[in-house]
Amino acid sequence: MTLSPAYIKDRLNGIEELKSPSTNHIPAGVLVLLFDRDGEYWVILNKRTQKVEHHKGEICFPGGRKDRLDKDLTETALRETWEEMGVDPSNVSVLGILGKTETTTGYEITPTVGLISYPYQFNIHNDEVEEVIEMPLSCLFLKDTRRYEAKLLEGEVIVQPAFHYENNMIFGATARILSNFACLIDSRNLKEPA
Fold it and tell me: Which domains, from first to last, does the chain contain?
């Protein structure tokens, strides 16, 4: 496998039929933002501040709920990334979208995958973003990085992926989106727990 924008775009286009139908969840869009550094792809994540209303200090993708003026959830993701990190939408090459992910907090997240050039000068919004975290995609396939968390949900134990990278724990919807993306770009390297 050679990871390239064309390969990622092709893999994303192959999952169109897997997108879930709309639910009563609130639509939201996030941006899985990638860049190429010295021939290796990296993903950009945010550490949320303690000032935000929800998910204080958690690691996430830039994004948020759909605004009534957004034409689609890709526009939502690009707008929110501009607001949170100062990434100009015209600097993002959109490669496609991943399947939707629902959260226990009532959101249905549509992740858009995009590519920016490296290095990029971020202008983070200090009320929302405490830190920008750059993580190599190769970490998604390492046993030392990948974890599984058990969660009790409506009386049922659910096992979900989580990732540990440089003293940061990535869990919940963000980890599920990363895991889905990892499976998409190279499913041979991932095995679900027995």
Answer: 5-142 (3.90.79.10)
